[in-house]
TrEMBL record:
The lineage of its organism: Bacteria, Pseudomonadati, Pseudomonadota, Betaproteobacteria, Nitrosomonadales. Belongs to the 'phage' integrase family. Keywords: DNA integration, DNA recombination, DNA-binding. It comes from Nitrosomonas ureae. This is Site-specific recombinase XerD. GO terms for molecular function: DNA binding. The keyword DNA-binding applies.
Length: 442
């Protein structure tokens, strides 16, 4: 399109009106004001063929001619009068005289505003998606119901229903602080339920650990929710009972799974790892497994036979072997002709060494302190949850049965019942550590 250029001493309303009346369909009219002084820029008016008028600030920067549009002439909203256009010209001229490129500055400001808008939009998006404390507990319970045992799910659900109301459910999960966790535990300790307070602390820790990885799962897309939890607020809260009463400690299903996987990732000797696993799977005493001999194992018969001289009640004890135990035994390196777990002096591993190994392992995982002997109690507790009767559990662990019938008349060895129970325990245990029958993680 052809442009006809002209120059005036000063653009006034009457001059502008006269040029608008001269609009032709074949050329754009461009009218420049005389420069008011070197380095101040030039006020330019362009009359388009459709009658529209645009105002420009024209200037030189880095030896290049540039134009910054001031705006469009008109009395409607968003347009400028000639007076307002000249006022904006003077503002741009002041910027230009200070050594700044007005057009570049405007672009920077526009970019900054755009970035701020994007940031605000992201904040709003997060607000819309950001999960609440109530949602976190709801999703976590659904996760437990699907992936954990019914008993554990109910224990956590009942605990949450009783005490989580202390925190408003619409509180953003990422806003929960140590102080909020303490409020929950305080109410429980006020009932003098100190062990329950410890359990709640463990439940909440596991829930927030779940929340921290939730955002990276497909579940977050399905539920259109993210929690944006950066750290576990429970990790800064001390246990209510630092040392639970001796004899009371057993590991929860969560703790068993954490412990089992920590063993596999630890730098502990494979002999101690396998010993700990057999203690947990068999329910035997620590010293019985530590001194286990190869000739006490009958893989074709799927049994371990502990001689009377190695048992507490001085009675021979037969332990049926389940599939998980077979796998561990077969993988255990045969470093000694007699003992499965020999020490460097060709004697069995010392029980004290097992306690030290547990202490070192606990420094790297978030589990309440326990001793190797607590694994035997854990077996007793969790086999009960698996549905195995107390009588069979007692026989599996070679507890002394002091009733007259057992002492003098009942000579039946209950091997079939114990074998069935150990197979049930094997299936239940694999669910606890989230492994299928082939050893693959769910």
């Amino acid at each position: 399109m052809k442009t006809k250029k002209t120059q005036v001493a000063e653009m006034k309303q009457t001059i502008l009106d006269s040029y608008i009346s001269k609009v032709t369909p074949d050329a754009i009219l461009e009218i420049k004001e005389n420069s008011k002084g070197r380095g101040q820029g030039v006020f330019v008016t362009r009359v388009l063929i459709n009658g529209n008028v645009d105002f420009y600030f024209r200037y030189f920067f880095n030896e290049k001619e540039k134009s910054k549009k001031i705006g469009r002439y008109g009395k409607t909203s968003g347009n400028l009068t000639l007076a307002k256009a000249k006022a904006k010209f003077r503002e741009l001229s002041t910027i230009y005289q200070s050594g700044i490129d007005p057009k570049a500055q405007a672009q920077e400001i526009a970019q900054k505003l755009e970035n701020e808008k994007k940031t605000q939009n992201e904040i709003e998006r997060k607000k819309q998606m950001q999960g609440t404390f109530g949602q976190l507990s709801e999703y976590y319970l659904a996760h437990l119901k699907q992936n954990r045992g019914e008993k554990h799910y109910k224990n956590v659900r009942n605990a949450f229903e009783k005490d989580l109301h202390i925190i408003a459910p619409d509180t953003k999960a990422s806003d929960i602080k140590k102080e909020d966790i303490l409020k929950i535990l305080h109410v429980i300790t006020q009932r003098n339920a100190l062990v329950m307070a410890n359990r709640m602390r463990s439940y909440l820790s596991a829930m927030f650990a779940y929340g921290m990885v939730f955002d990276d799962s497909t579940e977050s897309i399905t539920k259109h929710t993210q929690f944006f939890i950066q750290s576990n607020p429970v990790s800064k809260v001390q246990k209510i009972i630092k040392n639970e009463k001796r004899g009371d400690r057993s590991l929860s299903e969560d703790e068993v799974r954490i412990f089992w996987r920590a063993l596999d990732k630890s730098k502990m000797s494979v002999l101690k790892i396998n010993a700990f696993k057999l203690i947990l799977l068999s329910g035997a005493r620590v010293n019985e497994i530590a001194a286990l001999e190869w000739n006490e194992i009958d893989l074709p018969m799927m049994t371990i036979t502990l001689p009377s001289e190695r048992t507490k009640n001085k009675r021979q004890h037969i332990i049926p072997i389940n599939d998980s135990m077979v796998k561990i035994i077969n993988m255990n390196p045969k470093l000694h002709d007699t003992y499965l777990f020999p020490a460097s002096n060709n004697e069995p591993q010392k029980v004290d060494g097992f306690s030290q190994a547990i202490s070192r392992l606990l420094k790297n995982i978030e589990i309440d302190p326990f001793t190797p002997r607590d694994l035997r109690r854990t077996f007793k507790t969790l086999t009960g949850k698996a549905g195995i009767s107390k009588e069979i559990r007692d026989r599996l662990q070679n507890h002394s049965l002091n009733d007259v019938s057992s002492l003098h008349y009942d000579k039946y060895d209950y091997l079939k019942e114990k074998r069935d129970a150990m197979n049930e325990w094997n299936d239940y245990f694999l669910e606890i550590i989230n492994l299928d029958v082939y050893g693959n993680e769910f």
